Amino acid sequence: MSQSALSRWSGAVGSNSCWELIKHGAQVLDVRSPDEFAQAHLPQATNVPLNQLDSWIKQQPNKQRPLVLYCAAGIRAQMGCDILRANGFDCAVNGGSLQDLLYNQPTA
Which residues cross the membrane (predicted)? Predict the structure, then answer.
């Protein structure tokens, strides 16, 4: 399955590329609300709602660690990437939607 139309529109990179980054140690941020996170999320994800990203940034010592962000459609993830890049996190990638990432998750 290809990326959803909203994920492509939001600037999301391909799910396969995201999984490769995750495999090599990228931190995964779910920028959806806590309620959305509680319903479903990637097991390796940390929930940092978009409206709390500024506070999270202040606690991060390593701005060089790759980050993969996702949300419900990719739009909030892109907003999060924009915020991170504006604060010196040059390795932030929009992973698009949770659905796209789950669908394209490697089996091995």
Answer: none
Which secondary-structure segment (H or E) carries 18? Answer: helix 15-23
Query: For residues 58-87, b (16+ Cβ closer than 10 Å) or e, as one string?
Result: eeeeeeeebbbbbbbbbbbbbbbbebbeee
* Long-range Cβ pairs for the range 51-59 (8 Å, 24+): 53/80, 53/83, 53/84, 54/83, 57/83, 57/84, 57/87, 57/89
- Cα separation, 52 vs 40, whole angstroms: 19
Where do the domains of the chain lie?
5-103
**5-103: CATH class:** alpha beta
